[in-house]
Amino acid sequence: MSKLVAGAALGPEQFRVRRADLIRYAAASGDFNPIHWSDRVARAAGLPGVIAHGMYTMALAARAVTTWSGDPTSIQDFAVRFTKPVVVPDDDDGALVEVLGLVKDADEDGRTRIDLTVTCDGQRVLGMAGATLVTADA
Amino acid sequence: MSLDPGLVGRVSPPTPLVAVSRAQIAAFADAIGASDRVHHDAEIARSAGHADVVAPTTFPIVVAFAALEAFLADPEVGIELRNVVHAGQRFAATRPVTAGDVVSAVLRVESLRTIAGTDIIGTCTDITTAQGEHICTASATVAHRTPEPGT
Fold first, then answer.
1. What's the CA gap between B89 and B86, in Å, rounded?
2. Given A23, A72, B35, B54, which is the most exposed site by the fewest CB atoms within 10 A?
3. pLDDT(A94) > 80
4. Sorting pLDDT into bands at 50, 70 and 90, what band is B1?
5. What is the DSSP letter of B84?
6. By the 8 A CB rule, do A113 and A49 touch?
7. How many Å is the maximal CA-CA distance in chain A?
8. CATH number for the domain formed by residue range(s) B5-20+59-145
9. What is the structure's pLDDT at B148?
């Protein structure tokens, strides 16, 4: 946890998102909303095409945070807004999600607040994204 | 058509108790690429101080989503999932979900406003064990767009 000091810049962590990942996430999460697997339904809903589950992008952002903390169970509070959809084309490259972190403060109780910048194609896909970590060894 | 403002404060009945399995946690971890062994191996999880394999941070959405889906599908609410976009999400955890937990979710409607024909619904879902232990509060904001006639 030593690198999680106030002001520290973290990442980038990059995640490749392909259609197959969305199918797998749908099955694991139980969210079978067709906008995440059918271009036809996604377009009828006014979207450019199939988009990633917001919760999938949020899960990737959490992975970035726990990579930095070194403890997969360290996040106590985690909040995001879904500001732009991650459009996932039906090809081998898919979409690339990038996560940057900035440590806001780390207090003596072992609580660390990290603000996140999560982008795809240079556009912010999550807004007001932040995690509060609690570490046992602090 | 806008939603009934009277929905605010409404509390949904608890979802049926479900036992969270190791396989379910492993499948979710695999789906998001979380390869840490505490999600997959009970011995390693125990040696890290957990009762069994522990779920990734956003796993409680699986339980919360069931509550949200039931709420949207309620005839008094009548929203089709395909017309809903997830606008925001928060998890405030007391502890991670652990394999063997028997859990249920209770959703309540916190807020409702309409902006340019889009209903913005704020919900808050408490996930507790059968013994009443709080695991996590999952707050979801969803935007409901009424489809154009004929689509």
1. 8
2. B35
3. yes
4. low
5. E
6. no
7. 52
8. 3.10.129.10
9. 61
